[in-house]
Specification:
By secondary structure, the protein is α+β, with helices and mostly antiparallel strands. 41% of the residues lie in helices and 22% in strands. Helix 1 packs antiparallel against helix 2, helix 1 packs parallel to helix 6 and helix 2 runs antiparallel to helix 6.
């Protein structure tokens, strides 16, 4: 009878195995897969107890699932056995294919190792193939690309009370093989799910970061711009916010046709070129659409789309027009006379010092000095704003880095040499106007004299009030005859009647002509012109010093 039923029993077991394996592969998570593996041993393979030990990342094995005895499950689930102890077990006993059977006669030496285990009671075996309570049967599971050990199924107490025969061993071995595949797939799915969740979170964070940057860029109260770095379009503006477009009066579409070097004031090109891309700061003027210029503060930083992506120049543009206007007003007050608006004594000396150096020129009579590097090496104008000066503009920048010595005509006759003439003017008769008509009248005279002097010189010449009724004119590129003609013209302008406090008054003027050249200090130049003025004043009769 048993012989007739054996094929039917095996067929029913195969059907059960097929269903359990289908359930293993249909489990939704790694934990569900592991529990399905343990439950399948009990339901389909005829064992009362089953335990799944899973290899952890550190190599040790943890009890990940248990089936058949809730008390034993609560006792050992989650406990860990060392890899060393497990390898000792898998190297003992009898090998049934891939299965490891350790009979009770050998297994007693494992009672005190650190592998989690349970104990069952029962009578001693009466037959040779009867199952002993201390027998141990392990089914290793392999998986992954290298076929490494991923876990071990431990089974106990076959329901028929006997050690498994050939069919039972083959079924358990096949089941462990399929369980290894199912667990590996479940782990892969879990890793993929974690990776997808992590990727989604990173993408959400990236989208949030991009949105935060976009809002910070677009709605910033001050101007922002992004420009290209490197390549043929180096320095070209790619994107601007509304604040920068409003500040410059240009639409965003038009801004994309420019770089900052196209918009900067010509006098501020050097400042822009010296501003570094990473952390660079500069204060300069940018051109508006209407042709005017606005003072701004630029702050640069370099950003990248990704770790190895293209780099871009991010420029923050802040409107500092009002601050600059106040600074320029303060600087003007410090360097200009409050009454006449002319440069004061300090500004005069600064301008004069800028034209003369302390190296006295050594040339033959009538010779022309070559430019010398008086202020350090030539500056390189390679920069991150897409600007490379060339041609006449490059020559102009090179000129800023060279100093041409100032020379003076020699002797008392005009030899054709052009130099920097310094005309020292002292008003004649001004004190009597102050004494007779008061300081308001005197101030009106000084203001009008300053106006006439300023109108009588060329653009680029300097008219300064040295103090009191003394004025100084700096006129470059004049010969001796030119300077004398200028002094005569200015004196003729000054002696014309001046309206002051409702009456017409007259003042005269004495001029002394000095010449500035390198090797002199500003004070020495002024003293020379002052002395010549007094010589000229004393050379005329007192009654002729004033026109009326």
């Amino acid at each position: 009878m048993e012989t007739e039923l054996e094929p039917y029993v095996q067929l029913a077991s195969l059907r059960q195995l097929h269903q359990v394996m289908a359930d293993m592969n249909a489990a939704r998570s790694l934990a569900d897969t592991l529990q399905t593996v343990a439950d399948g041993v009990v339901s389909a393979l005829g064992y009362e107890l089953a335990c799944v030990n899973l290899v952890r990342g550190d190599g040790d094995l943890v009890v990940a699932a248990f089936s058949g005895n809730p008390a034993a499950e609560a006792l050992i689930t989650g406990r860990v056995g060392s890899r060393e102890s497990w390898e000792r077990r898998l190297g003992m006993g009898e090998q049934w294919g891939n299965l490891i059977f350790i009979p009770h006669t050998e297994g007693w030496i494992l009672d005190d190792d650190d592998v989690p285990q349970w104990y069952t009671d029962g009578p001693a075996p009466r037959f040779e193939d009867e199952w002993h309570p201390s027998d141990r049967l392990f089914a290793p599971m392999y998986g992954g690309p290298g076929g490494e050990l991923i876990g071990v199924i431990s089974v106990d107490r076959p329901r028929n009370g006997r050690r498994p025969g050939a069919w039972g061993r083959e079924a358990l071995q096949m089941y462990a093989f399929q369980a290894g595949i199912a667990i590996s797939n479940a782990r892969l799915r879990a890793n993929m799910q974690r990776a997808l969740v992590r990727l989604e979170r990173e993408q959400q964070a990236l989208r949030a970061s991009e949105e935060s940057f976009r809002q910070a860029f677009e709605y910033a109260p001050s101007g922002m711009a992004i420009a290209e770095m490197g390549g043929d379009q180096h320095g070209r503006i790619l994107r601007t916010n509304d604040a920068l477009c409003r500040l410059l009066g240009r639409p965003a579409s038009a801004m994309r046709r420019y770089s900052f070097s196209d918009l900067v004031h010509p006098e501020d090109i050097g400042t822009l070129l010296r501003t570094s891309a990473e952390g660079g700061r500069a204060e300069l003027r940018l051109g508006r659409r209407d042709g005017s210029y606005v003072w701004v503060s630029l702050r640069n930083s370099v950003v990248a789309d990704a770790a190895d992506g293209p780099r871009f120049l991010l420029t923050h543009v802040e409107d500092i027009e009002e601050r600059k206007r106040r600074e320029l007003q303060l600087a003007h007050r410090a360097s200009h006379d409050s009454l006449t608006g002319l440069p004061n004594s300090a500004e005069l000396r600064a301008r004069l010092s800028a034209r003369v150096c302390q190296q006295r020129p050594q040339t033959a009579h009538g010779g022309v000095l070559e430019p010398v590097d008086a202020y350090g090496p030539t500056v390189s104008y390679e920069n991150d704003f897409g600007f490379r000066p060339d041609g006449a503009l490059a020559d102009a920048y090179d000129a800023y880095d060279h100093h041409v010595h100032t020379i003076a005509p020699e002797g008392d006759r005009d030899d054709g040499t052009k130099g920097l003439a310094v005309l020292f003017c002292d008003l004649d008769g001004f004190k009597s106007i102050n004494d007779r008509f008061g300081h308001n009248a005197g101030d009106a005279v000084l203001i009008e004299v300053a106006r006439r002097l300023s109108n009588g010189v060329r653009d680029g010449d300097t008219v300064a009030r040295l103090g009191g009724d003394e004025f100084v004119i700096l006129a470059d590129g004049l010969g001796r005859a030119d300077a004398q003609d200028l002094a005569v013209r200015l004196r003729n302008e000054i002696i014309q009647p001046i309206r002051a406090e409702g009456r017409a008054v007259r003042v005269g003027a004495s001029f002394g002509i000095g010449w500035a050249h390198c090797g002199m200090t500003a004070d020495e130049v002024l003293k020379s012109a002052d002395e010549r003025m007094y010589v000229e004043k004393r050379s005329r009769p007192k009654q002729h010093r004033r026109a009326g």
